[in-house]
Amino acid sequence: MLIAVVTDIHGNRPAFEAVLAAVGEAGADELWCLGDLVGYGAEPDACVQLAAEHADVCLAGNHDLGVLGSISIEDFSTGARLAAEWTATTITDATRDYLGALPSAGERHGVGLFHASPRDPVWEYVLDTATAQACLDVATLAVNLIGHSHVALSFDRSGGQPVSGAPRGEGDAVELAGREWLVNPGAVGQPRDGDPRAAWLLLDQDAGTARWCREAYDVAAAQRAIREARLPDVLAERLQYGQ
Prior knowledge:
alpha/beta, single chain
C-alpha cells in the first residue's frame, strides 16, 4: 500500500493543490493528514474542503484547535495569533464542524499518527535527539508520523542504541524495518527548512520505506491571498524563503 502523508497545510491552497496533484501521479492508495489545515494562510475553507474530499484520515493541529477556541492562542506568535483570530471570523460553519470532529492523534495500518509528538500530540516540537528519545520511550508503535515543526526530518533508534536524527531533503529515503521511527514529512503550507517547495512523504508499506518529496507551487498566488486578506505581511514574505 502506498500512503501519502501531509501536514501543516495552513490555509495555503496553491501548495496543497500541487501536492495533491503529485500524490495522484504517484498512485497513492491513501492520504493521511497530520493536522494544521488552517492558520497563517488565507484560504482555510478551501484547504479544509480539499482535506474532506481527499484525506482518508485527518488530525487536528494546534492551529486548528486555536481557531476553534479549544485551546488558548495566547502563546502563539503575533502573526500566528492574528491569523488565528482572522480565520476564526472567516471560516464557514462546515469548516468549523469538520475541524471540530478531528482528533490530534491516532493509528492507522499499524502506524502511530500525531500532530506534534507521541508525548504531547498538540504542542511538542521534536527537533533534537533528546526529545525524540523521550517520545520513542512512550510510543507504542515502531513507526510514528509527526508534524508541527514544519521541518522535514526523521529520528530513529535500534536495539537500545542512542537515537540518531537527520534533516531530510527531496528524494531522501529510509528503510523502516527493524528500527523505531519518528518521521516528519515537512510542511505543505509553510516550510521552515530553507526549501520553499511544499513537502510531503510517500510511505510504501509493502517495501517498508519512506521517501520525502517536494513540489513547486504558485507561491505568488499564496502571498497575494494573504495580502488581500490583510494578514501580517511577514506571513506572505516568508513563503518565498522557506522560513
